[in-house]
Design brief:
heterodimer; A: about 200 residues; alpha/beta; 8 helices; B: about 220 residues; Nucleotidyltransferase, domain 5; five-stranded mixed sheet; two-stranded antiparallel ribbon; elongated
Chain lengths: ~200, ~220
């Protein structure tokens, strides 16, 4: 009596098709997505029905958190350097090449120009954690924000787009002071960054 | 990982057949799939698919030479919207009426009963015209550029009301964006963001107290 022999089947699965699929997915993700910018504060933008997309390059982004702190980001490093040195000249602060190098690497900036030197002396990790405590002064006596915008415009030229990204809960008071500063500089066209809201009545139109 | 299997023909050679050996190439793609999955996970976590939307606004200049051009709004065309704290919203038409508190109306951000209903009604001629145009565009009767030009003509035309938006310091950014959004939905081309005046504050207080505030001043 011979025992029933269990046929040994090979468990080799052909992964070629799977690999094809994953490569396709990967390509899709690489082509369609954009990297999330590191921001010091989490901002939840209000929704709107507007469908205009923001231009990809040459943006001066003004980030306003719910408590009213203002941060800024420029996307060209060359212009960041120029803007910083202009700011330094304005407030009588000379920045060393190392400090400029460090400033250049910041994704978002927003500290009082007077403490910029101390801030830049810190390590990058410490800077990230510390940045959210500061913010650019916007009050009328010490309106550094206005200067930043002015110098950013000077180094970027006419094509720069100003975009305001503020949290839903930001009081209008802060927005008003930012808008007034921009108005003083004759910056009358700018963008408000919003999230997409699907409106039932907008669809019906 | 990759294995080659050569079939040695098993001794039974067909006569006249080709002498090429059949080679089966098996490449194991499992590590490749692993790596791809890791990469996909990375991209999914570190990137965002949707680009943020934006709303373009144009503010009036405060150059002296342009200031004279302001204040040319006809009273009958003007609608003033007051944004207060706690998501409350008021509006009045034409000139502020300090005597009659009922001229100021309280409304809401509600899409069907609130501000939108009122604005759509005020602007119904323009809205109807634009909807007609939109239909024509969808039926490919007019070109895209013509559509955009005519829409902006209608929006800037004499039929449409002019909206003045005034917000208190207590109003939130969301309130402002919501109202600007209503402008887009209700096809209002002429609107301006202005300063909240003591007069507006008076109006709101007067409405809240149903006219009692007014008597305190004893004119």
């Amino acid at each position: 009596m011979s025992k029933v022999k269990v046929a040994r089947k090979s468990t080799l699965i052909d992964m070629t098709a799977m690999s094809d699929v994953t490569v396709l997915l990967l390509t899709f993700f690489m082509l369609t997505s954009t990297f999330v910018k590191k921001e010091p504060v989490q901002v939840k933008t209000p929704g709107s029905v507007s469908e205009i997309k923001i231009p990809e390059t040459n943006i001066l982004q003004i980030l306003i958190d719910p408590s009213g702190k203002v941060f800024m980001s420029l996307d060209k490093q060359k212009d960041m350097i120029q803007t910083l040195s202009d700011m330094g000249n304005e407030y009588g602060i000379a920045f060393t090449p190392e400090e400029i190098q460090k400033f250049k690497l910041q994704k978002t900036f927003g500290v009082d120009i007077k403490i910029m030197k101390q801030f830049l002396a810190q390590k990058a990790e410490v800077q990230d954690a510390e940045l959210q405590k500061y913010g650019i002064p916007t009050d009328s006596l010490n309106n550094q924000f206005k200067k930043w915008v002015q110098f950013a415009r000077k180094s970027n030229g006419k094509d720069m787009t100003i975009a305001i990204k503020a949290d839903q809960k930001t009081p209008y008071k802060v927005i008003k002071s930012v808008m007034n500063s921009l108005q003083d500089l004759n910056e009358n066209r700018y963008n408000l960054i919003t999230a997409l809201k699907v409106e039932s009545s907008a669809k019906k139109e | 990982m990759a294995e080659l299997q050569t079939n040695e023909g098993g001794g039974k050679k067909k006569k006249g057949g080709s002498k090429q050996k059949k080679i089966h190439v098996h490449v194991d793609f499992t590590p490749m799939v692993d790596m791809n999955m890791l990469l996909i996970t990375f991209f999914m976590l570190c990137t965002s698919l949707s680009k943020p939307q934006t709303m373009e606004i144009v503010m009036p200049t405060n150059k002296e030479s342009d200031l004279t051009k302001k204040n040319e709004v006809k009273a009958s065309d003007a609608i003033t919207i007051l944004l207060n704290g706690g998501d409350s919203i008021y509006y009045y038409q034409g000139k502020p009426d300090f005597k009659d508190y009922t001229k100021l109306k309280r409304t809401s951000y509600n899409a069907t009963t609130g501000l939108r209903a009122f604005l759509l009604d005020r602007n119904r001629l323009a809205v109807a015209k634009i909807n007609d145009l939109k239909k024509k565009k969808q039926d490919l009767l007019i070109a895209d550029s013509t559509y955009l030009r005519q829409v902006s003509e209608i929006k800037g035309g004499k039929l449409t009301p002019t909206v003045i938006i005034k917000a208190t310091d207590q109003a939130t950014y969301k309130n402002l964006v919501d109202v600007l959004d209503e402008m887009a939905i209700c096809r209002i081309g002429k609107y301006v963001i202005d300063k909240y005046t003591p007069g507006d504050k008076y109006l709101v207080k007067n409405l809240e107290t149903k006219g009692n505030y007014q008597s305190n001043f004893a004119n």
